[in-house]
């Protein structure tokens, strides 16, 4: 973003409370781009005795993750995660619980992860290339993003 969305004046970087922020260069305009994190919901989908992981069409072969999507304006996170499961997989989900929240700094996101049990027949939407159901004893977390939710979910099962 190069110009103020309020008055179209060029933006400049200003140090505000020791943090560099984009702000309007016009002294009479108070616009500051705070760059707050974007909320994302994630569903660890329990499906047919395992955990369903999917590969986004933009990802390389072999990279799978839990189901994620953006929280819409005015939407409850619990409703959003069930909506994402239905939209992306064509499955009916039932919320089993909240796993935790996880900052994902590379994309300025805050992930809200939920445990969801799903049933039905998978019908992938256009965002997903493929899926696999991984046996729970074979499921291994990865060390960033939603992988931390997988780690915590697995640890909670052993407690």
Structure report:
The chain contains two helices and nine strands, in the order E-E-E-E-E-E-H-E-E-E-H. It has two domains: 1-35; 38-158, Alpha-Beta Complex (Nucleoside Triphosphate Pyrophosphohydrolase). The termini are far apart. The protein is elongated, with a radius of gyration of 19 Å. The protein has helices spanning 77-89, 146-158, and strands at 11-16, 19-24, 32-33, 38-47, 50-56, 67-70, 92-104, 109-119, 128-135. The chain has 159 residues and is an alpha+beta fold. Helix content is 16%, strand content 42%.
Order of helices and strands: EEEEEEHEEEH
Q: Give the class from helix and strand content and strand pairing.
A: alpha+beta
Number of strands: 9
- The percent of residues in helical segments reads 10-25%
Query: What does the largest sheet look like?
Result: 6 strands, mixed
By CATH reckoning, the class of the largest domain would read: Alpha Beta
Distance N terminus to C terminus?
Answer: 47 Å
Kindly estimate the percentage of residues that lie in beta strands according to DSSP.
35-45%
Q: Helix tally?
A: 2
The gyration radius over C-alpha positions equals 19 Å
The third-level CATH topology of the largest domain is Nucleoside Triphosphate Pyrophosphohydrolase
Shape: elongated
Catalytic activity: a 5'-end NAD(+)-phospho-ribonucleoside in mRNA + H2O = a 5'-end phospho-adenosine-phospho-ribonucleoside in mRNA + beta-nicotinamide D-ribonucleotide + 2 H(+)
InterPro entries: NAD-cap_RNA_hydrolase_NudC, NUDIX_hydrolase-like_dom_sf, NUDIX_hydrolase_CS, NUDIX_hydrolase_dom
Family: Belongs to the Nudix hydrolase family. NudC subfamily.
Cofactor: Mg(2+); Zn(2+)
């Amino acid at each position: 973003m190069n110009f103020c969305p309020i008055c179209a004046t060029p933006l400049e970087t200003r140090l505000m409370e020791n943090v560099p922020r984009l702000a309007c260069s016009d002294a009479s305009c108070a616009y500051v781009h705070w760059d707050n994190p974007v909320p994302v919901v994630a569903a660890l989908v329990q499906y047919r005795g395992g955990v369903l992981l999917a590969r986004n069409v933009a990802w390389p072969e072999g990279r799978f993750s839990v189901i994620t999507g953006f929280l819409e304006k005015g939407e409850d996170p619990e409703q959003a995660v069930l909506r994402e499961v239905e939209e992306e997989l064509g499955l009916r989900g039932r919320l089993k619980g909240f796993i935790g929240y996880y900052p994902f700094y590379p994309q300025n996101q805050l992930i809200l992860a939920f445990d969801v049990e799903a049933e039905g027949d998978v019908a992938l939407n256009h965002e997903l290339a493929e899926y696999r159901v991984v046996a729970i004893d074979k499921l291994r977390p990865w060390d960033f993003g939603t992988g931390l939710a997988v780690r915590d979910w697995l640890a909670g099962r052993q407690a």
